[in-house]
Design brief:
With about 180 residues, this protein is of the alpha/beta class. It contains six helices and ten strands, in the order ββααβααββαβαββββ. β9 and β10 form a beta hairpin.
Length: about 180
């Protein structure tokens, strides 16, 4: 069965995601890219069976990535994508389908079959809904050397006793620590 991997790029020491337009956001995107970190992400994204996301993230990515000069552009344009939305009627980005049914049932369909895994993109409300349904199998968190103080918490409104097991940790040259946790079941 395919597993769901959720990867958060902007994660502060105090558990906050970077909100666009904040000093923390500027700090995160101002860090130099670590080649080992980029290679790791590209490997996970290329080997994915599918990439799933909520409507808002889909609209942002579909509006930017098809023509962007970014290391993930080719991967994401070619990859199968599923956008979870009950309001979106069409998906113009290549290789995108819309999942409008029950989230658990739609995820169960994607999990069936052979190779690859499923990469979970945001936004935060989509992540939280998947956590509340206990559907995420693995978290990959890029912990930035920053204390934001205020912002959006990733792990808010999640079920009580949401235990994770550390699989690995990697320190990158730009000060980011890549943490890989598996959902304890």
């Amino acid at each position: 069965m395919r597993k769901l991997i959720a990867w958060a790029f902007m994660y502060s020491l105090d558990g906050l995601l970077a909100d666009e337009g904040t000093e923390y956001w500027d700090f995160c995107f101002g860090l130099p890219v670590d080649p080992a970190s980029l290679e790791q992400k590209i490997g996970v994204y290329q080997s994915a069976y599918a990439h799933i996301m909520g409507r808002a993230t889909y609209e942002a990515m579909a509006g930017a990535l098809p023509t962007a000069d970014h290391p993930f552009t080719g991967i994401m344009n070619a990859a199968p994508k599923v956008v979870f939305s009950r309001t979106l009627r069409t998906a113009e980005w290549a290789n995108t389908t819309i999942a409008a049914g029950d989230t658990t049932e739609e995820i169960d369909k994607l999990r069936q079959g052979g190779d690859g895994h499923i990469v979970v993109w945001g936004g935060v409300s989509f992540w939280r809904s998947l956590m509340q349904l206990d559907l995420i199998d693995e978290f990959r968190l890029d912990l930035h050397p920053y204390v934001a103080g205020e912002g959006t918490r990733l792990f808010e409104d999640v079920p009580k006793s949401y235990r994770l097991d550390l699989v690995s940790s990697t320190e990158f040259s730009n000060g980011i620590v890549g943490l890989r946790y598996r959902r304890h079941r």
